[in-house]
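For the sake of transparency, this paper describes our internal protein records without simplification. An entry from our holdings is shown next, in its original layout:
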Amino acid sequence: MSATLYTRDILRLAVSIPHQGRLQSPHGTAEIRSRTCGSVVSADVHLSKDQLISDIGIEVNACALGQASAAILTAEAMGKNYSKIQAARDHLARFFAGSETMPGFWENMNHLSSAKEHAGRHAAILLPYDALLKALEIAMQKQEVA
């Protein structure tokens, strides 16, 4: 475990994930597994009528970086829509690819900078976003049908 990769802030975030646990009767749910590292994130979501996130439930079986990423995401996601979550995920991915100078604009995202040079960790960091986005897609499809 590299001291520069697993900073004190990353470890602090990893043990403070908001909205841990599954939701009762979610509008959308998804489980995503990383083929790269084996991490698994399950996300449940409730949406308001105007498709804003009104509740989240998340279970994370990932390294400290994946857990820290989930903590940042779930702390920020309430009241946001699919496009805001997608924009944050895309910005973070562009940062890892070298085309953005900072990982994002949400509180604590700067702590993910330590992983930029560790490409093998990027999938675990993006996994919570991918799981939440898939859960949101399912919830929005259900709303369209109803």
In short: The chain has a mean pLDDT of 94. The first strand starts at residue 28 and ends at 33. The two ends are 49 Å apart (CA to CA). Strands lie at 28-33, 40-47, 53-61.
